Structure of Multiple sugar-binding transport ATP-binding protein:
Amino acid sequence: MTHDRTEAMTMASRIVILNQGEIQQIGTPEDIYNCPDNEFVATFIGSPSMNMMTITNHIDA
């Protein structure tokens, strides 16, 4: 077990991502990095850090 993300991503064959004791995703480092299951996993693992924002699309009629 480690709290070091870099160590986990480079040394582990499988990773469990927890958020407040709840499992968010289990998988290989490659799967978690390339296909995060949710926004928490994406922002936790992403490098460089991700900025999440709400986008509204206005279509002129």
